[in-house]
Design goal:
Chloramphenicol Acetyltransferase; 7-stranded mixed β-sheet; single chain; 2 domains; globular; 459 residues; alpha+beta
């Protein structure tokens, strides 16, 4: 079997939790989960190089068995990931269910693709990454069960491997995904033969599945008009010829951007009152990337931009919930901004707008609520056709580049399901406080402009 003529499928199997239970594990959808019931999977690829020379037999006899065993042990602590999203005909609400025979699809593959090219930061077509992503089959309109995770490990002979993961957003946000992946890496680094099937994770990796009660609303208020678990076609993967680019802002670049903001604000506020400002690495990186994005789109950019972000609110609820809460626990904040402001009004202006959104969330639990999902096929389509919707995904605080499975930290952590106008902000491999900016653009011309604009900061 081949996939996109670039990957040869070697094996497809199922990985079950190591600690088999005769009972089922059921989770209701919490208030923050409902927005993502029809979202397509979150797809990621994490690339690992192996510095020393190794044989193919080392990959197949050591790496793969160890990854399978550690995944089985990890799933014992994350049972819902091995289960399904269900919506039986006799149930008024969908729910997540793990049953004793459930398991995660695990694919082993091999490729002759250039490891350094597909794991590099230089702009390239996003389709280069698609063969390394496993597929959770998009359900047809009558489907009543959807898997929640699939894994693919692809071997680059003499170079290393990548781990591709596809996860359903209805079960987990980025923080929850990070918790699972860190747990898997931690267990894989251990001497697996010494671990029992009932191995207890350290407390910092132990998930909490207790649903929050302080944002509960009547679940029936969230039920979409159309009874379907089908993934929204509007949100599926971007066209394969779109260009993915990744750029690193060092701590020096970040400090220069912060200084620039303060200088602009000082000039604007002479003789006036000061306003509160959340001047973080995240804020200045997002603001700068947004300005470069809008300018790169030139005349193809719509006149109004919807600037938004998603904020983790685990510690902001009253009472707060566990920092290891496993599920979705984010609130979304956004505002409409004229596109001309990104071109004419100055860097500090956009920084202040993003800062305002964050301070609004930090203002207290009264500002936090779960939103009813829109009718994606109609309302969202109309909304997106009139504005330039820009948002940020991921966060450098999740430390993606610290996930060492025992063979070193990743070479590259990539969000494949990035989508149009989404900007991914993550930590960097150096772990020095810099930030990695990734985004997709529809053609090389726009990417060339973006590269030129971002270089003004880098230089």
């Amino acid at each position: 079997m081949e996939k996109e003529n670039a990957v040869k499928i070697v094996e497809v199997c199922k990985i079950s939790p190591s600690s088999h239970s005769s009972s089922k594990f059921s989770l209701p959808l919490a208030a923050f989960d409902w927005l993502f019931i029809n979202f397509p999977p979150l797809d990621r690829v994490i690339y690992y190089s192996i510095s020393h020379n190794y044989s193919d037999s080392f990959f197949h006899s050591i790496i793969i068995p160890k990854l399978k065993h550690s995944l089985s042990l990890t799933l014992s602590h994350f049972l819902p990931l091995a289960g399904n999203l269900l919506w039986p005909a006799d149930s008024p609400l969908p729910f997540i269910l793990y049953s004793p025979n459930d398991a995660v699809s695990f694919t082993v593959a091999e490729t002759d693709s250039d490891f350094h090219r597909v794991s590099g930061n230089h702009p390239r077509q996003i389709k280069d990454s698609y063969p390394f992503v496993p597929m959770i089959q998009p359900p047809n309109s009558s489907a009543t069960a959807v898997p929640l995770m699939a894994v693919q490990v692809t071997h680059f002979p003499n170079h290393g491997f990548c781990i591709g993961l596809s996860t359903h957003h209805v079960l987990l946000d980025d923080k929850s995904f990070s918790l699972f992946f860190k747990s898997w890496a931690h267990i894989n680094r251990c001497q697996l033969e010494s671990l029992s099937p009932n191995y207890n994770l350290p407390s910092e990796f132990t998930p909490s599945f207790e649903r929050p009660t302080n944002v509960l609303r009547n679940p029936l208020d969230f039920v979409p008009k159309k009874r379907s678990l089908k993934f929204s076609q509007l949100l599926l993967m971007s066209p394969s010829n779109w260009i993915l680019g990744t750029f690193e802002l060092t701590p020096t670049h970040i400090e220069k951007l912060k200084k620039r903001v303060l200088e602009e604000i000082e000039d604007d506020q002479k003789g006036g009152s000061e306003e509160e400002l959340h001047l973080s690495t995240f804020v200045v990186a997002y603001a700068y990337a947004l300005i470069c994005l809008i300018k790169a789109k030139q005349g193809e950019c719509k006149e109004v931009v919807h600037l938004s972000l998603a904020a983790d609110v685990r510690g902001l609820l009253d009472p707060p919930i566990s920092s290891n809460y496993f599920g979705n626990c984010v609130t979304h904040r956004g505002m409409l901004v004229e596109a001309r402001e990104f071109r004419e009004e100055g860097f500090a202006n956009i920084v202040k707008k993003i800062s305002h959104l964050i301070l609004e969330v930090k203002g207290g639990s009264s500002a936090i609520e779960a939103h009813k999902p829109p009718d994606v096929d109609e309302q969202q389509h109309s909304f997106l056709s009139e504005i330039e919707a820009c948002t940020v995904v991921a966060s450098p605080k999740f430390k993606y580049y610290q996930n060492d499975f025992g063979w070193g930290n990743p070479n590259k952590c990539e969000i494949v399901s990035l989508g149009s106008n989404n900007i991914a902000l993550t930590d960097t491999r150096d772990g020095d406080g810099g930030i990695e900016v990734s985004l997709l653009l529809p053609n090389p011309h726009q990417m060339d402009i973006f590269v030129s604009l971002i270089a003004q900061c880098l230089n």
